[in-house]
Amino acid sequence: MSLPGITPQPHKVSRALQIAGRASEFGSPLSVFRNLLQVVEFYPWRLDLLEFAGRSAIQGGALEAGIELLQHVSEFKQLDATSQIALGDAALRQSNSQLAIAAYTTALHAGGDPLILYDRMAQARRTMGDFAAAIKDLESLAALQPTSPQISVQLGLLYASQEPEAAITYLTRAVELDPSLEPEIQSMRRSLRTARLSDDKAYTLLIAGRELASLGEWDLAEEAFRRATVFRRDYAEAWAFLAESRQHLSTTNQLAYEDLRKALTLDPDSVVANTLMALYWQRQARDDLSLVYLHAALAAEPDNPTLHIELGDTLAGMGEIGSAHEYFRQAVDLAPDNPVYWRYLASFSVNYDIDVRQVGLPAARQALVLDPDDPASLDVMGQVLTLLDDPVSAQRFFRRALQNDPGFAPARLHLGFLFLLQGDAAQAHQQLTLAKSLAPPQHATALQAARLLEQYFP
To answer: Which helix (H) or strand (E) covers residue 448, if one does?
Structure first.
């Protein structure tokens, strides 16, 4: 028998509301989302609950469901600024920049915080490649926060891809506001000041692109190189660097290859174009083709020690150790006062176990003579001594490297490996974990540390 006016639905709704309330209180947005959907099944006109469910879905990571709900609600009522921001954030994470910008713009008109929204709109426009519009958004943000050094940095980087001379003003302003930023952007400021002495707009953009690339700003670097090719269609180096930036952005290899071919057609003797074509083929695991272009680059610049190192590395990877050794030797002969090339020779000896006592040890010593405090040189000496079965001295050099630079991940890796050899599991685990965390995720140091941790500490 059923009581008048009492049905199972209200009890279910009441229960779902209670659970949703507790879930909201304890920070379980997906539970809020699911339970509010049950409520709205019986009260579909409660758009306020559906809107809150959409925001909760997004907060909990159910982006597609949240976007769908908020777009559905927007057909019947105007979303508040909080919901529009949530919609924009979800769309941006889903790589739907157009929807994100539309949502952020609506949120701004609805009274949303402009400090949040101009920043997010700039991110979305940059993702779309609309760098000019991103600059306008950041300039609006800078007007609201004139003392923010980070906004000045962002504007400087964006302008570097468009109007490099204008970038100098913003980068200088950033350093004035926060002098600690100087090491990060010093090279770009110096290079742009030098480049502006030239009347060649394409050259200035090329220099800006290279500096942006060195900072890992590959989307902006690509834009700078692209614009350089627009100003000078015959600029071989710009086409070559454009190809390199496209590879870093995971653009199709075919497009990058076509740009490299264009560069070499324009200037077959270009060291930059030949070197970057060699790198392209290395990434395709075609060292045989890479050698062709490295030899071409070396023919154009026979006294370039870096090209000798590249050839040595490539030959060593192909198993031609004797020929590789000769190129490493030639590099130090060409630049005997540069510790970098002695370190390359020592590392080659260590990596391929080539006469470590007669080749690696003297090379490591010479690197330290030339720069006794360089963490990389101290680290390579530690590696040499590890192979020469002198763990006490090896550890001393690793420790010195880390004393000079505690964040130098390779020394952490090699010290951890030394502890493994000595059976000190606790110390090994500590150093390998630090090496993995300090190195960039896809860097060889991080990958090797991860493999050792997985192998010895499963």
So the answer is: helix 444-456
